[in-house]
Amino acid sequence: MAGKGKEKKKNEIEIKIGGKTVRYKVVAFGVTVLVALCLLIAAFQLYRYDQGVLEIYADQQDGYVELVMEQIALRDPEATDDEIIKQILGTLDASSGKYWTLSKDDYLVFVKDVLETNRYKGFTTSTYMVEQSADDFLNNLRKNWVTHATIKMDGDNYIASGVEFEYNGHPYRICLLTNTAVILDNNEFLSAKITISIMLILIFVLVLVAFMSLSVVMDKLKKESEELNAHIQEQNIKIGELDQEMLEKEQYSSRLNAYHISVLQTFLEKLRERKTYPMQFVKLSFDRSSTRDEFLEHAQIMLDKKALRFTMHDETELLLIFLQYTESEARAAVKRIKLYGEMKIEKHQAVETDADMENIDKEFFG
């Protein structure tokens, strides 16, 4: 199991970042988290953007309420509530998304328009504004100082601007309520918001696509790397085989039909296994290397396959091993080869048993 774990880690793609090695899966997780975090931040900034727009609108709405309050204060002190409503509030635009309320002594005297006023006339303000946020807003109204807050009415959010003032000896409350949807769904504002959202989404999509493309490239590079490593290993095996083949070729000269002395031990082991006794070990010396080469050339014709030839480190020496030859047969075979140079038998040893094989004179090993 440990081996598999190591192999798995080894096959994982690694990326260099700032001089440090980071695993591909860690980078993938990091990019995913980063994109998700950026989306959350973008959503939060859009929310703050909406709140900022609403705050700006609320400040403007406060100024409008203050202006209406001043107009009421400038009216004839003897003017009735109906005259105030008809001459001031009745002239203002009203809709389901934006309307006015006016209360006297905490009782409603105007709501949106004539129809709504008739429905709620005689009701207390708190009866109309039943939501907790709306009730809190009413209770926190200040005298002659316009304030605003976001309240909930019938399930919708409203920007409410209101003020408490005194007119003709009675306390009044005037409020302007605007549905936030009316503000935020304004065509130009909504278009700009949608454009920003689309641009942000496109940026994040491009980041993800770029990373996905990178992952495909990395996977391809990983496969190519694995294939290259496999090819290199295969080539290394072939090179090893070629090296072995070259070594064998160096140890055996086809021109001289002779083996190098370095492989003698291997031959002796195989000869011991096959028990090709008797064997005659004959070491020859020559006056020069060319005489030795001349001997080997003649040996290709004069000696049979049972006569193994080994070149020595000294190019004027040669080792012959005669398989299933007697001593006299071996010497006769050597003397049959006539040379222009000089040759002599330096050493001759017969091997007839495994014990003899163990006691081969080390001189024969060059």
Overall average pLDDT: 80
| Largest sheet: spatial strand order | 8-9-11-12-10-13
Shape: rod-shaped
- Can you summarize the main beta sheet? 6 strands, mixed
Q: What's the helix count?
A: 12
**Strand fraction band?**
15-25%
Query: Which structural class do the helices and strands define?
Result: alpha+beta
Parts with pLDDT < 50 across at least 5 consecutive residues: 1-13
Distance between the termini: 52 Å
The secondary-structure element order is HEEHHEEHHHEEEHHEEHEHEEHEH
Specify the helix fraction band. 40-55%
Question: Would you count the extended β strands for me?
Answer: 13
Radius of gyration (CA) equals 55 Å
Concise synopsis of the structure shown:
This protein has helices at residues 2-11, 24-73, 81-87, 114-120, 125-128, 132-139, 180-184, 187-251, 264-274, 289-302, 327-335, 354-358; strands at residues 14-17, 20-23, 98-104, 107-111, 147-153, 156-167, 170-179, 252-253, 258-260, 279-286, 307-311, 317-323, 343-351. It has 366 residues and is α+β, with helices and mostly antiparallel strands.
